[in-house]
């Protein structure tokens, strides 16, 4: 269910803006600021968070790039204390004319990113860096191969929308259940294996799905994202079993169990 702004209740005093100290002004030089406009559950465990504001209109973004979100939500303490931890999220959609960008946050575990996604409220200020990153489409590839799980699907979504209709697309996007699948362009060309209660870390299910793909003899461009160990397994398969050059394989690890900063 979506949550949007509602008018101020009659008789309720308007919230006073917090005075911006030296720390806030310093952070303004290195971070953009937006506000949460809406939150909406678009899959079983994924929430779309719509951000907006004047600074969003000035951003330059390529499909596949991400933001570094400050996950702190506290109202007290220094500006730096309120920032919290930084976590990386791929941009699902960017509309510079409307001054909006959308993130899709998977609710998994209890790390600072998952907590931020669960508790984001309309009107909440969000600081972020980016967009940034080189995990983007190669224009000269004869075809594109995508492989990853739920966290990777957010990056894949806008990338798939950008692939010209005449360029072939292959791949496998693993989810726990059908209800976890995001609406992906050209999804009919992708294998969509289900892992059920199995772990997404070092996923043999996703590796098997990629192994069984009927790919052209020559290499294309591969985009592997999501859990770090699974990415390594699929990359080794492409290099050692399909004779792909490493330069044709583009990777973006978003998380792995037990590693601080990737939760």
UniProtKB/TrEMBL annotation:
Entries under InterPro entries matching the protein: FAD-bd_FR_type (IPR017927), FNR_nucleotide-bd (IPR039261), Riboflavin_synthase-like_b-brl (IPR017938), SIP_FAD-bd (IPR013113), SIP_fam (IPR039374), SIP_rossman_dom (IPR007037)
Molecular functions per Gene Ontology: 2 iron, 2 sulfur cluster binding; oxidoreductase activity
Annotated protein name in UniProt: FAD-binding FR-type domain-containing protein
FAD-binding FR-type domain ranges (all copies): 29-138
Span list, region Disordered: 1-23
PANTHER family assigned to the protein according to its UniProt record, in alphabetical order: FERRIC REDUCTASE, NADPH-DEPENDENT (PTHR30157), NADPH-DEPENDENT FERRIC-CHELATE REDUCTASE (PTHR30157:SF0)
Organism: Nocardia aurantia
């Amino acid at each position: 269910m979506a949550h949007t702004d509602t008018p101020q209740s009659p008789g309720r005093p308007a919230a006073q803006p917090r005075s911006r100290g030296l720390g806030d002004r310093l952070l303004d030089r290195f971070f953009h600021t937006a506000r949460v406009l809406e939150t909406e559950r678009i899959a079983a465990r994924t929430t779309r968070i719509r951000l907006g504001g004047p600074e969003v209109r000035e951003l330059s973004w390529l499909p596949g790039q991400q933001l570094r979100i400050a996950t702190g939500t506290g109202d007290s303490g220094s500006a730096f204390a309120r920032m919290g931890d930084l976590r990386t999220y791929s941009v699902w959609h960017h509309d510079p004319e409307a001054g909006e960008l959308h993130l899709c946050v998977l609710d998994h575990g209890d790390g600072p990113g998952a907590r931020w996604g669960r508790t984001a409220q309309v009107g909440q200020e969000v600081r972020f860096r980016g967009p940034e990153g080189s995990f983007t489409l190669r224009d000269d590839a004869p075809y594109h191969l995508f492989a990853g799980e739920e966290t990777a699907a957010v990056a894949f979504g806008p990338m798939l929308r950008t692939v010209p209709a005449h360029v072939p697309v292959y791949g496998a996007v693993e989810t726990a259940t059908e209800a976890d699948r995001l609406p992906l362009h050209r999804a009919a060309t992708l294998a969509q294996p289900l892992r059920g209660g199995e772990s997404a870390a070092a996923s043999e299910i996703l590796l098997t799905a990629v192994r069984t793909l009927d790919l052209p003899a020559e290499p294309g461009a591969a985009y592997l994202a999501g859990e770090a160990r699974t990415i390594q397994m699929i990359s080794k398969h492409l290099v050692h079993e399909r004779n792909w050059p490493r330069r044709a394989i583009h990777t973006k690890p978003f998380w792995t169990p037990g590693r601080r900063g990737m939760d």
